[in-house]
Amino acid sequence: MTRNRSAFGTTLLYGFLAVTLAGSVLPAAGPREHTLYRFQGGSDGDTPLASMIADKAGNLYGTTSLGGGSPNCASGCGTVFELSPPAGSGGAWTETVLYRFQGGNDGAYPMATLVVDQAGNLYGATASGGAGNCVPQGSVGCGTVFEMVRPPSVAGGDWTEHVLYSFQGVPSGRGVGDLAGPNGLVLGKSGNLYGLAYSGGHCQTDETGAYCYGGAWELAKPSAAGDAWKEQVIHIFGGPTGGPAGPIFDKSGNLYGTVVWGKYGFGEVFRLEPPNATRAGWTKVPIYDFQGTDGAFPEPGLAFDSHGNLFGATLGSPGYGSPEGNVYELSPASDGTWSATAVYDFTPYTNGYSPNGGLILRGDDHLYGTAAAGGESGAGVVFELTPPAAAGGAWHYEVLYNFAGGAGGSPDFGLTFGLGGALYGSTPQGGNLTCGNTGYGDGCGTIFQVVP
Question: Which of 64, 68, 83, 306 lies most in the core, judged by the most C-beta atoms within 10 Å?
Answer without folding.
Answer: 64
